[in-house]
């Protein structure tokens, strides 16, 4: 993570004035209905540029400048707040956070007693006023001093009940947003209504909250993060809400039946030290890609009311809290083309070709569009400006078109009428379209995958050979390879005695591969190499895997209720292929693994038993960078297999749960993250000596 974010450099007063105007217009659109022409990254760069210019030219500062103002000064309201609703100052890394904390402690003249750490929810701040336990008014943040009445939204916001548990008079503060599924639904409703859509969950929430008359209702979500008793309220409750630590206030809020982040994977916590704060930041950042709602950072607050009171406020933000910003996960770019490909399993998937854009540390050129229904639900068109989302290791995806940036030149996306690979018909009965020929459509791709280095690893079987065998009708799937005869091969062009014998020997060797690799070779949808290893370890035999129903499959770590039935269906479809492999004498067991206990027999152990006595027992290990020394010749998959042979768990992302990072040359963000989290880092050579017995 970079500590100094990029800025837009402004050359002179004219450029400065234009930048101020653009920022004010963008902020006005952003807070009004989410129709800014800039993505957040571009807006933030612009405002930092304005700030830098103002620091260098204090005499040129325009009164309309967005700097130092809540909502960039672009928003007004007519409902005064009892206590101002402020913004938050930002930091962009561990060092800046430490500087900020040191500054705060200098101001206090003593260390901060305890911190609270919670996600920075990416929605809109709202004040929810309750009288005698009943929700009576909703007010937006506005300019911080006065907001807009949006009480019409009462009753449409999940997590914000009409009635509290107690008949109390109090004001709750929190964030209104849309979850991923609420966003999907909102897009579909708007698409059906006027053929347009929302650009992203945040702008959908902004637009929805402020629109009074819409013929359709979109559901919103609320997470509370604060309580404000009325300043003249001297009741016991008001007094105790003024005096309790933030963490306990949040417990009280949850007790009133209001949603807080407590039940999410990124729940607020308290931390005694800045190290623990930093660790929690790492955990929240790591959880971000999997969350069903958007976060754009982590908020660090003084937990104790006394610390907060002593720290006080500036005109724009409290001094006792700060936002630790995470890199943007979304940018606006252009949809240039849509490509259609039939994958190994016969699934026909659209892929967006984008004007390249930098996002979360890499250049994004392609993004997934999932399926046809997804395109129509969003009303995407060629030439659209689109929001693209990418976080962590997830595949970038097109979120939605930015409808207010349309020029009128956009064109409908052509939808294929036949399989783009073989020209046969398309089975469109499911959301995921498939070629009617299924796996057979892309037999060559399936076979190339199956014999690849990380699966059956059959040496000397290049693509042109496979094509030759397919064309000659000798094989139709990879199981047929095991039945090839010497005479058949010698009858083909360019197959001499030596290459034939070498190939047959390589195929023979492949029969002995562990089940994890044989299973991976099947190319079951939704199971890659590491998932195949987990399945093989869990069930130990192919028979046990095939006997498992969806519920049993779900016992494997990382397989959820959505994936499990797909695996079961796939195994039924693959039954003839598996039977053929069994008949060929291909190994169907995982060395060293024990099949799961029969239900009702010995009491089942919680999770998988941790192998004892192995060097990496109960350790979670992540590998990054280029391997050197004894590991130099191993593929990443082979290193992961090695970790698991030695009793460890191979993982692809660094978190607080990581026991060790094996960092080779050119290790990048994973190394930085491990350093931040204090995860042990070893070189490939050190690691190799630790597990030499398993190499
Ligand atoms: N794209 C654009 O044109 C455009 C225009 C204006 C602003 N923006 C974006 O908005 C950001 C600035 O917005 P801002 O001034 O609303 O402030 P902010 O989003 O940086 O931070 C303050 C807000 O954080 C929210 N928040 C979330 N979780 C919280 C928690 N746990 N505790 C306390 N508060 C929490 C509150 O709503 C609070 O008002 C910019 O960084 C920019 O990315 C974009
Ligand atoms: Zn086809």
TrEMBL record:
Function according to Swiss-Prot or TrEMBL: DNA ligase that catalyzes the formation of phosphodiester linkages between 5'-phosphoryl and 3'-hydroxyl groups in double-stranded DNA using NAD as a coenzyme and as the energy source for the reaction. It is essential for DNA replication and repair of damaged DNA.
Check the record and name the SMART domains matching this protein.
BRCT (SM00292), LIGANc (SM00532)
Q: Does the keyword Metal-binding apply?
A: yes
Which residues does the record give as NAD(+) binding sites?
40-44, 87-88, 118, 141, 175, 301, 325
Provide an example Pfam family for this protein: OB_DNA_ligase
**Family matches, as InterPro entries:** BRCT_dom, BRCT_dom_sf, DisA/LigA_HHH, DNA_ligase, DNA_ligase_AS, DNAligase_adenylation, DNAligase_N, NA-bd_OB-fold
From the Swiss-Prot or TrEMBL record, give the protein name: DNA ligase
Question: Tell me, what is one Gene Ontology molecular-function annotation carried by this entry?
Answer: metal ion binding
The top EC class, named as a word, is: ligase
Cofactor dependence: Mg(2+); Mn(2+)
Question: What PROSITE patterns does UniProt report for this protein, alphabetically?
Answer: BRCT, DNA_LIGASE_N1
UniProt keyword Zinc, yes or no: yes
Recorded family membership: Belongs to the NAD-dependent DNA ligase family. LigA subfamily.
Reported EC number(s) for this entry are 6.5.1.2
According to its UniProt record, which residues of this chain constitute the active site?
120 (n6-amp-lysine intermediate)
Q: Which UniProt keywords apply?
A: DNA damage, DNA repair, DNA replication, Ligase, Magnesium, Manganese, Metal-binding, NAD, Zinc
Renumbered to this chain, region (Disordered) spans 589-610
What this protein catalyses is: NAD(+) + (deoxyribonucleotide)n-3'-hydroxyl + 5'-phospho-(deoxyribonucleotide)m = (deoxyribonucleotide)n+m + AMP + beta-nicotinamide D-nucleotide
Gene3D superfamilies in the cross-refs: 5' to 3' exonuclease, C-terminal subdomain (1.10.150.20), BRCT domain (3.40.50.10190), DNA ligase/mRNA capping enzyme (3.30.470.30), Helix hairpin bin (1.10.287.610), Nucleic acid-binding proteins (2.40.50.140)
What region holds the BRCT domain?
Answer: 611-685
In this chain, composition skew of type Pro residues spans 593-602
Q: Which GO terms describe its biological process?
A: DNA repair; DNA replication
User: Would you say which domain of life the source belongs to?
Assistant: Bacteria
> Where do the annotations place Zn(2+) binding?
419, 422, 441
């Amino acid at each position: 993570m970079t500590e100094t974010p990029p800025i837009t450099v402004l050359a002179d007063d004219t450029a400065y004035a234009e930048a101020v105007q653009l920022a004010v217009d963008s902020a006005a659109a952003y807070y009004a209905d989410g129709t800014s022409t800039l993505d957040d990254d571009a807006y933030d760069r612009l405002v930092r540029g304005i700030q830098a210019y103002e620091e260098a030219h204090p005499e040129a500062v325009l009164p309309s400048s967005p700097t130092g103002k809540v909502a960039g000064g672009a928003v007004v309201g007519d409902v005064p707040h009892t206590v101002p609703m402020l913004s938050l100052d930002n930091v962009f890394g561990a060092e800046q956070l430490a500087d900020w904390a040191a500054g705060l402690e200098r101001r206090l003249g003593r260390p901060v007693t305890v911190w609270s750490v919670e996600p920075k929810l990416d929605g809109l701040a709202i004040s929810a006023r309750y009288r005698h336990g009943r929700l009576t008014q909703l007010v937006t943040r506005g300019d911080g001093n006065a907001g807009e009445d949006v009480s019409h939204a009462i009753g449409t916001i999940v997590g914000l009940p009409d009635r509290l548990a107690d008949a109390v008079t109090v004001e709750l503060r929190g964030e209104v947003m849309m979850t991923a599924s609420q966003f999907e639904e909102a897009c579909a409703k708007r698409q059906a209504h006027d053929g347009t859509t929302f650009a992203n969950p945040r702008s959908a929430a902004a637009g929805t909250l402020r629109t009074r008359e819409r013929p359709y209702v979109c559901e919103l979500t609320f997470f509370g993060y604060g309580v404000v008793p009325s300043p003249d309220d001297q009741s016991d409750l008001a007094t105790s809400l003024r005096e309790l630590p933030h963490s306990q206030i949040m417990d009280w809020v949850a007790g009133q039946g209001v949603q807080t982040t407590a039940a999410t994977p990124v729940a607020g916590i308290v931390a005694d030290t800045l190290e623990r704060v930093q660790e929690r930041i790492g955990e929240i950042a790591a959880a971000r890609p999997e969350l069903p709602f958007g976060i754009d950072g982590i908020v660090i607050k003084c937990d104790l009311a006394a610390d907060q009171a002593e720290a006080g406020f500036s005109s724009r933000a409290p001094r006792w809290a700060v936002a630790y910003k995470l890199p943007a996960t979304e940018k606006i770019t252009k949809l240039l083309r849509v490509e259609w490909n039939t994958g190994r399993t016969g699934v026909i998937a659209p892929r967006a070709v984008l004007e390249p854009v930098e996002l979360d540390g890499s250049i994004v050129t392609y993004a997934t569009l999932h399926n046809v229904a997804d395109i129509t639900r969003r009303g995407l068109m060629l030439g659209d400006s689109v929001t693209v989302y990418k976080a962590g290791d997830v595949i970038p995806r097109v979120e939605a078109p930015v409808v207010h940036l349309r020029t009128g030149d956009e064109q409908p996306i052509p939808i294929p009428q036949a399989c783009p690979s073989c020209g046969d018909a398309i089975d469109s009965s499911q959301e995921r379209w498939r070629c009617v020929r299924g796996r057979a459509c892309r037999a060559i791709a399936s076979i190339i995958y199956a014999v690849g280095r990380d699966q059956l690893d059959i040496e000397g079987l290049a693509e042109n050979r496979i094509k030759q065998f397919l064309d000659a009708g000798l094989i139709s799937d990879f199981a047929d390879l095991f039945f090839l005869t010497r005479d058949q091969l010698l009858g083909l062009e360019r197959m001499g005695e030596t290459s034939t014998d070498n190939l047959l020997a390589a195929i023979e060797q492949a029969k002995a591969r562990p089940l994890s690799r044989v299973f991976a070779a099947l190319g079951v949808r939704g199971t890659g190499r590491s998932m195949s290893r987990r399945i093989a370890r869990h069930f130990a035999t192919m028979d046990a895997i095939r006997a498992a129903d969806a519920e049993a499959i779900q016992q494997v770590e990382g397989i959820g209720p959505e994936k499990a039935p797909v695996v079961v269906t796939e195994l039924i479809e693959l039954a003839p292929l598996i039977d053929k492999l069994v008949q060929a004498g291909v190994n169907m067991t995982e060395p060293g693994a024990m099949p799961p206990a029969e239900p009702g027999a010995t009491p089942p152990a919680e999770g998988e038993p941790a192998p004892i006595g192995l060097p990496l027992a109960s350790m979670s290990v992540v590998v990054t960078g280029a391997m050197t020394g004894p590991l130099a010749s191993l593929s990443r998959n082979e290193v992961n297999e090695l970790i698991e042979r030695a009793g460890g768990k191979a993982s692809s992302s660094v978190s607080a749960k990581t026991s060790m990072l094996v960092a080779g040359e050119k290790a990048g963000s994973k190394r930085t993250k491990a350093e931040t989290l204090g995860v042990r880092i070893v070189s490939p050579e050190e690691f190799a000596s630790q597990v030499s017995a398993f190499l």
